[in-house]
């Protein structure tokens, strides 16, 4: 694992690759968490995480679902919505002048989960958002998934 300064150098100079989990309930709602970390702190955002160096996509998916949802799921239980670009003016360290660039693989999972049992590492709160709800507090990068939902 890189120390903070080395990781900031990576963020400054390269895109990061990550997986976003678009969790859809049987009521056709999308799971969102209130982000506590930059970038996107203070916004409702879908769960997700970075893929680590030398980690297979399958292993990353299982690790991220376990970390973000409390249960490890296999990629076979999800549908790939596509690849997305997420650009932020901020970074995890709140250092001025350093933006963050993610190439995100968006995977949709059909799950009814108890939001009271979800981990609180990256999100301070969770809720379900319907397609026709006010999305003004949902980060635009998470709003972008709605047109792709199958």
From TrEMBL:
Keywords of this entry: Hydrolase, Magnesium, Metal-binding
Keyword set includes Cell wall biogenesis/degradation: no
Family matches, as InterPro entries: GDPMH (IPR033715), NUDIX_hydrolase-like_dom_sf (IPR015797), NUDIX_hydrolase_dom (IPR000086)
Domain Nudix hydrolase: from-to ranges: 12-150
Cofactor(s) listed: Mg(2+)
Pfam family, one: NUDIX
Motif (Nudix box): 49-70
Residue numbers marked as site, Critical for catalysis: 123
Cofactor, free-text remark: Binds 1 Mg(2+) ion per subunit.
Alphabetized PANTHER family for the sequence: GDP-MANNOSE MANNOSYL HYDROLASE
Protein name in UniProt: NUDIX hydrolase
Protein source organism: Methylomonas methanica
């Amino acid at each position: 694992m890189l120390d903070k300064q080395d990781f900031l150098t990576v963020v400054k100079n390269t895109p990061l690759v990550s997986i976003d989990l678009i969790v859809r309930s049987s009521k056709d709602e999308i799971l969102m968490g209130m982000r506590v970390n930059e970038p996107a702190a203070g916004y409702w955002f879908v769960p997700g995480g970075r893929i680590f160096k030398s980690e297979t996509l399958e292993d990353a998916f299982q690790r991220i679902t376990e970390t973000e949802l409390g249960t490890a799921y296999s990629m076979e239980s999800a549908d790939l919505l596509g690849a997305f670009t997420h650009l932020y003016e901020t970074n995890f360290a709140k250092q001025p002048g350093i933006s963050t660039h993610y190439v995100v693989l968006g995977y949709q999972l059909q799950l009814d989960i108890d939001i009271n049992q979800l981990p609180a590492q990256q999100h301070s709160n969770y809720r379900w958002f319907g397609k026709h709800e006010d999305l003004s507090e949902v980060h635009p990068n998470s709003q972008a998934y709605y047109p792709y939902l199958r």
